[in-house]
Amino acid sequence: MSNAMLNRICNDENDPLLRVKLRCKHGDLLSMQTSWSEHNPARRFWSCSRYREDACNFFRWRDREDVDIRSKYVIQRLAKRIKELEEVLASYESRVESNQVDQMKVQRKEEAQYKEMVEAQWKEEVQWKKKAQ
After folding, report:
1. Which PANTHER family does this chain map to (predicted)?
2. 35 and which of 40, 94, 109, 127 could share a cystine (Cβ 3.0–4.6 Å)?
């Protein structure tokens, strides 16, 4: 699951700060994001997309509170598990795609063999008709 999707899931629609319009020195409108780092899991913030580039250092936490130790542990474990499951899903999707390609190859080979067989029968029939005349 991408960070953008996790951000949408974690945003509380009733949070008044969600609609706050913050702009950096570039004038870019900033959206609230969610940190998934080890030290600040699920903590919300605003940051310029060019943070540390172009000397733009705009960064602001949504809150001043730290996440409690238990929540940090649980959130990190859940985020790690989501990543593991996404990797398993990607592996399955890759295998399914590979199997589909293999099935298409087999089908094309069977179609080519059938075509060759039909052509051979047609040639035999033409030769038989020529001999019969």
Report:
1. ZINC ION-BINDING PROTEIN
2. 40
Q: Compute the residue count for the chain.
A: 133
Give the residue from 64, 77, 69 showing the smallest Cα distance to 39. 69
Tokens 């913030």 belong to residue? 45
pTM of the predicted protein model:
0.43
What span, in angstroms and rounded, lies between the C-alpha atoms of 52 and 39?
20
Q: What is the pLDDT of residues 15-53, one digit of tens each?
A: 666 667 778 887 888 878 888 887 787 788 888 877 767
- Distance, in Å, from the CA atom of 23 to the CA atom of 29, rounded to the nearest integer, reads 5
The token pair that represents 121 in the structure block: 């029968």
Residue 114, SS3?
helix
Q: Which tokens hold the place of 26?
A: 């570039």
Listed residue (45, 49, 50) closest to 60, CA to CA: 45
Q: Residue 62 and residue 55: Cα distance in Å, rounded?
A: 22
